[in-house]
Amino acid sequence: MSVNEDVQSALDWLKEHSTPNDYANLARFGITADKAFGVSMANIQKLAKIIGRDHTLAAALWKTEWYEARMLTSFVDDPTKVTVAQMDKWCRDFDNWGICDTLCFKLFDQTPHAWGRVAAWGDKPEEFVKRASFALLASLALHDKTATDSQFLENFPLIERAAVDDRNFVKKGVNWALRSIGRRNAVLNAASIVLSKRLAASKEAAPRWIGKDALREFAKVAARKG
User: Fold this and answer.
1) What residue ranges of the chain are covered by domains with CATH 1.25.40?
2) Rounded to an integer, what distance in angstroms lies between the CA atom of residue 220 and that of residue 206?
């Protein structure tokens, strides 16, 4: 089959597995998408297993602009073949938190370019590009077992700068990154608590919320550990 035929086959499969409830869930979870079938994540992942890794097909699926087809690329694309140019292009296409977070959590953080994109996107003005920086940083904190403490600490100034951005998806992305770093190990936990306290003392609402929420999270984790 040609790539175009493979794309059409995937779109047909997604359409066949769409449901009114899954479509309604998009709005329920605050996901806006101009083109969407309404397919559960479980079914998207099921189709991904059928397809396997295919970098060329992933690029073609992305171009369709269908929400579920783009979600599918998170599991189908080959992270070893993903380029910086591709990451930047797809990031500029992000138009909701679902696409942003899933691409960062399931694909982008596995590429050799992940750390460089955290720095490149963190000060961008576009809401979902900026969120992607911190979604990616959070994903690296959770998944990159070889990363050093210094790599995370070097991004604390970026977190602090972005914390004043009161846009909902940026604010929550920054918070996610800070909480994820703070749960990585004792050294990063101590540093994250210091930063969180500084943010919590801010006169501005966004950094104050980020800091206080992170401190609550760290306190809960500490209490569970006894």
Assistant:
1) 83-226
2) 21
pLDDT digit string (tens) for 14-32? 999 999 999 999 999 999 9
Say if CB 118 and CB 155 are below 8 A apart: yes
Q: 1.25.40, 1.20.58, 1.20.120, 3.30.70: which CATH number matches 83-226? A: 1.25.40
pLDDT in tens, 28-80: 999 999 999 999 999 999 999 999 999 999 999 999 999 999 999 999 999 99
CA–CA gap between residue 154 and residue 147 (Å, rounded): 12
Residues 34, 146: Cα–Cα separation, whole Å = 39
Question: Which residues, in sequence order, are CB contacts of 190 under 8 Å at separation 6+?
Answer: none
The dihedrals phi and psi of 173, each to the nearest 5 degrees, come to -65, -45
pLDDT beneath 70, residues of the chain: none
Residues 112, 30: Cα–Cα separation, whole Å: 31
